[in-house]
Amino acid sequence: MNDGPTYRLEFCYRFYMGRTSSLCGVILAAGESTRMGMDKALLPWPPATPGAITSPGQTFLSAAIFALSPFTQEVVVVAGKNADNLAAAVYANGALLVQNPDPERGQFSSLQVGLYEVLARGCDAAMIMPVDRPPLSAATLEQLRSAFELALSLGRWGVAPENDGEHGHPLLASRELIEAFLRASPTSNAREVKRAHMQYIEYIAVPDPFVSANVNTPEEYEALSTPASARPK
Fold first, then answer.
1. CA 198 – CA 218 distance, rounded (Å)
2. What is the pTM of this model?
3. Is residue 5 situated within a structural domain?
4. How far apart are alpha carbons 94 and 142 in whole angstroms?
5. Positive or negative CA dihedral for 70, 45, 164, 176?
């Protein structure tokens, strides 16, 4: 049997081309947004700029659902006490709403709630993002999905984007990484789990500057409307 480099590369290529993951999107939206002063999920997106026209009703939440939907079989939104306020936007955009019964435990508990729902829906992989991050461009998400499928064929568990040395979201997680998150203590966090399995996670350089954008305060939200934060094409 030929087991040389050429054969191994051909095998990996064939395996990669024949394998597709059953992806579900997971949007974490259970936070109380205390520093923002209003629910970040319902902030207008993109932010209004002088002379610009913003689509009525477009929010961080609806934009995130819209961004993930073409790349996933279903999008799961994890809410907390704000579930009633988010329900209309979730269902109007074709997503599924699940509620974290104890959001005070933190974002990791919402991640676990969302991942249990992913498995219950028959998916074996997840595309995960917090709702308070600007959604990435379709080109970037396609790049990440392609990199994820290749990474799986090489024995990796997940991929995430990076831009200018900064890591960000969404995280694309295989069944193995999902199970690692679910096995972890509820008092843990996603960063600790990823660090414990860092040899299985690849970071993909992308040109999208929103990779590491973090929106917790009105000032950070307002900064997104500046030319330096212009949305990539």
1. 33
2. 0.84
3. no
4. 21
5. negative
